[in-house]
């Protein structure tokens, strides 16, 4: 076994695949190999299926757009971004995002820890055939310091009418 506290490479396609009904997430780096300093996920987004309004209390979140056009909303401010853009969301800031066309993102959490939510969310998604009750999602999220915010399940509040359940 390679000592992951040293230099290493994660080849294309490696990492835990968390395919779910609303796209796929691949955990590229989790807490242990980075000594809990950050985690990294690759997300393949489906159109109009972004997460509800939420906040991460223990971690900053950084998004890098690999492909596609997205909108991001952070503390009420909305911006449109495209391939090559980087978006920083400080811990505690309310935010959501979506794409109208589909796309790919890298998402980094610092410090690490929030990535466990995605493993548990994918498992719950499979168990419920993609129909996760809002209360179940909120309980799952709270275990990782993620707070789903009031009104986040109201599609009329979403820019462009978008509505989704992944965080």
Characterise this structure.
This protein is mainly beta. The chain has helices at about 115-125, 135-140, and strands spanning about 15, 25-30, 40-45, 55, 60-65, 70-75, 75-80, 85-90, 95-100, 105-110, 145-150. It has a six-stranded antiparallel β-sheet with strand order 1-2-3-10-5-8, with no helix packed on it. Strand 1 and strand 2 (about 25-30) form a beta hairpin. It is globular, with a radius of gyration of 15 Å. Mean pLDDT is about 85; it is low at about 150-165.
Structural class: mainly beta
Q: Which strand order do you get reading across the main beta sheet? A: 1-2-3-10-5-8
What Rg, in angstroms, do the CA atoms define? 15 Å
Beta-strand percent range = 25-35%
The main sheet comes to: 6 strands, antiparallel
- What is the string of SSEs from the N terminus onward? EEEEEEEEEEHHE
Q: Total number of helical segments?
A: 2
Average pLDDT score: 86
Helix content: 10-25%
Instruction: Flag low-confidence runs.
Output: 152-167
Number of strands: 11
Distance from N terminus to C terminus (CA atoms, Å) equals 33 Å
> How would you sum up the global shape?
globular
